[in-house]
Design goal:
Structural class: mainly alpha
Mean pLDDT: 82
Strand content: under 5%
Largest sheet: 2 strands, antiparallel
Distance between the termini: 52 Å
Radius of gyration: 21 Å
Strand order of the largest sheet: 1-2
Helix content: over 70%
Oligomer: single chain
Order of helices and strands: EHHEH
Low-confidence stretches: none
Length: about 140
């Protein structure tokens, strides 16, 4: 049976929690920028895009919080398990549960990067368009 170090998984969990905190902070920063864009623009297309990104940001924050909660609840389980296992390794069943968290983390990370990069591209295109057409309302961006 395959066994993996408990301390290794506990360290990974803490790294995931730190990265998820970082992603939440960045989403909050992007949300502030999004609010500024929505305030400065009354074009229906821009408002549609900003509302879409607002929904994506909110959904991503909620998903990150759920994952953080699940990771947090797994940390005490690992700590309790470590006290009862003399060799400091976990069995295959717990490894599977940890790998499920890992898969969820990777998915969250991928979605975060896709949303962030899409928003940054939208913002850059909007800024470029506005600088070349200061008196016109944008017709279509991305």
């Amino acid at each position: 049976m395959e066994k993996v170090s408990i301390s290794h998984h506990n360290n990974i969990n803490h790294v995931w929690m730190q990265l998820l905190d970082l992603y939440k902070k960045e989403i909050n920063t992007l949300s502030e920028k999004l609010s500024a864009i929505a305030t400065k623009n009354d074009d229906p297309y821009v408002l549609q895009k900003t509302n879409g990104y607002k929904g994506q940001f909110d959904a991503q924050l909620s998903s990150i919080r759920r994952l953080q909660n699940d990771i947090s609840s797994s940390i005490p389980n690992l700590a309790n398990l470590a006290q009862h296992i003399k060799d400091g390794f976990i069995d295959y069943t717990l490894l599977l549960k940890h790998n499920q968290l890992k898969d969820r983390f990777i998915t969250e990370e991928k979605i975060f990067h896709e949303i962030r990069n899409g928003f940054k591209l939208f913002d850059a295109n909007l800024a470029n368009w506005a600088s070349s057409h200061p008196s016109n309302v944008p017709i279509m961006l991305l």
